[in-house]
Structures are given as C-alpha cells and as structure tokens.
Amino acid sequence: MAIKYIVNLSDEERSLLWNITSRGKTTGRIVKRAQILLLADEGHPDETIATMLKVGESTVHRTRQRCVEEGVQSALKERPRQGRKRQLDGKTEAFLVATACSDAPSGRESWTMQLLADRLVELNLVQSISDETVRRTLKKNQIKPWLKEQWCIPTVGADFVWRMENVLDLYAQPYDRDYPQVCFDERPCQLLSEKRIPLPSQSGQPERYDYEYKREGTCNLFAFFQPLARWRHIKVTNQRTAQDFAECMKDLVDVFFPKALIIRVVLDNLNTHTPAALYQTFPPDEARRILRKLEFHYTPKHGSWLNMVEIELSVLSRQCLNRRIPDRETMKRETATWALERNRQHATVNWRFSNQDARVKLERLYPQLNLS
C-alpha cells in the first residue's frame, strides 16, 4: 500500500526528535510521536511502525498527516479538546447550593445527593443529572448537607462575662499550696458486661468482641483536678446527688488539702453544686466548718469549656472508658490506675487563654457601652 504522507525531516528536526526520545523529560505521548516521525523518516510503512511501537495504525497515520500538513512541532503537540459541556450553569449551581443548605424535605433527616439531583430534574432545571455530579459540585463549594455539628449557643451578657473573667483571673494566679486551685466536675457512666468472651488479637487480625452486651446499671465519676500541681483524682459513686457533692467537698477539706487555708474550687452551675448541699448533708456546725475553707468560682452557663477538668475528663474517656466496664469495683480500680499513672507522668493542662485574650477574641460577648 502506497504511503500517502511522506515524512522528510531536516537535520535540525531529526536532532530535535532524537533529543526528545533520549532525554525522557517530557510526556510519554510526545515521546511516542517523536519515535513515529523518526521511523517514518526512515521509510518504514505505517503497519511496521505500529507493530514496532505497539500503537494503532490510525495513530501513525494521523501523526504523519499532521507533520506533513502542519509541521513537526504541531505533530508533537496535543490538539485542543472541546471537553464536555457543563451540566450546571452558574445559576443552576447557585440554586443547588442554596437547596442543600435549606431544610430537608418532610420525612427526611437531611438532603442526600440523589434527593438533590431529583429536585433539579423535578424543577426542569436540568433534563438529567447524576448524584455524583451533585456530590462534586457540593464538594467544590465545601457544602456537606449530611453533616451537623452540635454546638452550645449561649445567651451572653454581663453575667457571662464576669463569671468568665473571674475564672480566667484565678487561672492566671501562680501556685500557692495554702490556696490550691481545684477544678471539679462529674460525668455519668454506663456499666456494661460482655455476653460472650472476646477473641484476643492475633497476627494479621484485630481483637474481636460481640456486638451484644448486658447492661449492669450506671455509676457516676467525680473528677478532682489541680492543674498547677499536676494532680487528679477520680471518685466513683452510685449517683450524683447533693449529698454526694457534699461528701466530695468534705474530702477536699479533710483528705486532700487538710493544711490549706482556702481551697478555690472551679465548678459549673449544676443545681447540686451549692453550699446548701452541705447543710442538707451535715449538721450546721460541720457544714459551716467545711464551707469556711472553700471558695467557689462558678463557670458561666454554657461556659463549661472554661473548666480545665473537662479536658481531663475527655482524656479519661479516650484512654480508659472507651470499652465495656462491668461493675463499680472494676470502674474504681481502672480509673484509680489511670489517675495514678497520669500523676506519675506529671500530666497537666497548659492553659494560655487570659482575660486579655478574651477581650480581644470574644469582644462580641461583652456588653456594648454607650459612653457618649
């Protein structure tokens, strides 16, 4: 079969193509076209070149044709591709984003990709569209309609501010053994036992445990945390009544800090966290004796993030409580071991948020005064 497009390269063009094939500093497609042109220049037919380079004869033919008609440089380059027409124009894309940010339809918890695709078709904005196209469009706009974050939105004002600054001012004070700072809080825990013995981990296989479990009741963990002394203690009780709180305060005074002049306690506004709890539990003289050595610093409502013991409880949950613990005795033993190890490591919280930081970063929370 006669060759329709004859490739005759100049010495300069031949040198250029040899450099491309030998250096390997360009794409594979350009190297392959350069090899086709060099072989064509030697007089090889299309089918021989196709066999030698393992490409289609049509590829060889098109490369020859472009070289003859448009030159070597044009034959090496990719032709511009038209590309697929966009399914969503700017207006339709904006509608999709707005719909994904709106309330989900009745009977649904959130928008899905298929629901959004069906809505666009239903409103005749597009003839058809896949859920994958919807997903890519939302990803480009950083929209995740299935994701919700739980957030505490406080009602702020002067009361929030003064309580916050009171706690932050306390945190700014240095360590004083006569006036220890203690952060206090509690959290409930379920007691769960295994119905079947878990299978231990082996090489190439993780530990396996059955999804079924048995409920064994609940208990409560009271957490004491002294950041400046790098000390914490966990007390396990059956419940968290006002009497339990009063007993914890008595422990602070008589067991943990018997030589302290005043114990400054940071705690939240739970209805049991009041001096009245001590009068409900002890005789008046005893309640008064304990309260003389306590100074309560309450975090603002919805401001529990200001209590450093919340961070410590989060560590406890991740390191110790993220498993099934069957009874209170095991809970006491495990939490005591955890606290002892943390105390040995001298672990603490490096609190850096001050009143000066609050007045800048949380300026919107402060009352706006009209001083004119």
Secondary-structure blueprint:
Elements: H1 11-23, H2 28-41, H3 46-53, H4 57-70, H5 72-76, H6 90-100, H7 113-122, H8 131-140, H9 158-171, E1 181-194, E2 213-226, E3 231-237, H10 242-256, E4 263-267, H11 276-281, H12 284-291, E5 294-298, H13 309-319, H14 328-344, H15 355-361
Parallel strand pairs: 1-4, 4-5
Antiparallel strand pairs: 1-2, 2-3
Distance between the termini: 98 Å
Radius of gyration: 37 Å
CATH superfamily label of the largest domain = Ribonuclease H-like superfamily/Ribonuclease H
As for the number of domains, it is: 3
Please work out how many helical segments DSSP would assign: 15
The secondary-structure class comes to: alpha/beta
Question: Please, what is the average pLDDT?
Answer: 89
Helical content (DSSP H or I, runs of 4+): 40-55%
Unreliable runs: none
Strand content: 5-15%
Task: Report the count of strand segments.
Answer: 5
Main sheet: strand order = 3-2-1-4-5
Q: Identify the overall geometry.
A: elongated
CATH architecture of the largest domain: 2-Layer Sandwich
CATH fold name of the largest domain: Nucleotidyltransferase, domain 5
Name of the top-level CATH class of the largest domain: Alpha Beta
Helices and strands, in N-to-C order? HHHHHHHHHEEEHEHHEHHH
Largest sheet: 5 strands, mixed
